[in-house]
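Appendix B. Chain record.
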Amino acid sequence: SDYGTSFPLEPFHGTIGVAPAAFEARNVLVPEAFGGNMDTPEAKAGATIYLGVNVAGGLFSLGDGHYTMGEGETCGVAVEGAMNTVLTVEVVKGVFAEWPRLENDDSIMVAGSYRPLEDAFRIAHTQIVQWIAKDTGLSMMDTYQLVSQAARSRIANVCDANYTIVAKVPKQFLPKDIPWMNGVHQKMRDRGRAVMAGRPKLPARSGS
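Structure tokens predicted for this chain:
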């Protein structure tokens, strides 16, 4: 049809990951513990993404630029487009993210990718319970109850060979001043601001 509309710009990369473990060759279109095509809008500017390193060098990759996307990417198509992306990367020693973890200024998150959808949910919620318990010192049962009461479950994709759910817990419900993953997020935010402050501004597009 000739119908058209416009959306607010909410850019992110649908595919973010590293090489899998056990010397496997995996298609990134099938997200799993190593990341891949998770299609979560939470992986946007200002977010820190923690991925376990499975091979020497990590072999980090990203792509699948989305200008915006509905949760679940129902028919497998977002508002797709090319991007110029500036990243800062840090090796965090002494900790390991078994499944992809995300953090922004307001929340911590874990992405679980599997089929059926309830297995993706189970992975994401099990992992975030374990993460919170470890970093805060809360008991596993207290953390389990807290997550049950506070978590949001963002559906990232239901169109790939594995589905992705993101378990998200707002920091306002968690113990204060916790240095999640050794405080890397704040360090990366400060570094990112410094990098962007030193970059020349892009010229405005004509006709925009």
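Further analysis of this model is presented in Appendix C.
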